[in-house]
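FORM 7B: Structural annotation worksheet

SECTION A. Query
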Amino acid sequence: MSAAEIIKRAAEEGVLLSLSPSGSISAKGDQSAIDRWLPAIRQSKASIIAELQLERRRAKVVAMLRENPDIRYAIEVIDANDDPVIVSVAIRNVATFEINIPQANYDAFALFEFIAKFPGGEHATV
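SECTION B. Predicted structure
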């Protein structure tokens, strides 16, 4: 079962998985349901944390668009010094995605120029 499936199925059973301030997994809900999910959570801990981090980054760029109705896209660069550079992007009425760019190839201006070329569309994930 993938990390996304574990998060979704646990939520369906009343177990909310989130990131704690320290970056570990926090589980809230009925203790017996949490206890049933603990083995799967422990087994997939690293991938669940990565999935929750991805969800948090996506939510952040989507929130940027909601808070600023006049902008077409929102971008968050996690750390331009990391390798790869992780970039979360939301393009209004087009898509949300994350891209990992090798640090040696990362060019913020080229990235902005590329994203600015996307026209708006009628189908949105934002």
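SECTION C. Observations
Residues 121-126 have pLDDT under 50 and may be disordered. DSSP finds four helices and five strands in the chain.

SECTION D. Sign-off
Analyst initials: ____
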